[in-house]
Specification:
two-stranded antiparallel sheet, 7 strands
Length: 171
């Protein structure tokens, strides 16, 4: 029987932390990647930038420019704020000024969902690969640690080929 007290719990904890962070990051950036790729099929409608202001997000400790824009779908005026699903950084900071006419790309299944920049970017793919690497590293380390624990703890009785049993590791 494997006893976890025999294993270095700090190494198992680190492995589980890597698995958790890598798994969460892979899921998040995978979602962003596929969501941003889906915007390539969204149709363009005319829109206008209403506001562009810098906002400080204390949770992430950085300032970014937040845009708001108006667009119209089937006679209904709608408001949006998402520039892109991809990690475009400060894309559009100079392009999207209040009053500027823009193309707004609208989700055909939900007109309330819209972006100003379609598609994915290179860095989203890089982030997926980094997170996937962390996940796989954590899984590999965990398998090494658990495999080491299993090999150290052999059965106390080993069945011989003739059906009898022999004492083993009676320490």
């Amino acid at each position: 029987m494997l006893r976890f007290s025999d294993l270095a719990l700090d190494k198992i904890g680190l492995s589980l932390l890597l698995v958790g962070i890598g798994g969460a990051g892979t899921w998040h950036y995978g979602h962003v990647f596929f969501k941003s790729k889906s915007t390539s099929d969204w149709r363009a409608v005319p829109g206008q930038i209403v506001d562009a202001e810098y906002t400080y997000d204390a949770a992430i400790g950085r300032a970014y420019k937040r845009f708001s824009y108006e667009y119209e779908v089937s006679g209904q005026k709608l408001n949006g704020w998402r520039v892109s699903w991809a990690n475009t950084g400060n894309s559009g900071v100079g392009l999207f000024t209040p009053g500027a006419a823009v193309s707004v790309y609208v989700n055909p299944d939900d007109a309330q969902e819209a972006v100003l920049i379609q598609g994915s970017d290179f860095w989203t793919g890089v982030q997926i690969l980094i997170c996937l690497s962390v996940l796989l590293l954590g899984i590999w380390l965990l398998s090494l640690l658990l495999g080491e624990g299993l090999s150290d703890r052999s059965l106390s009785h080993e069945r011989l080929s003739d059906g009898s049993s022999s004492e083993r590791d009676s320490e």
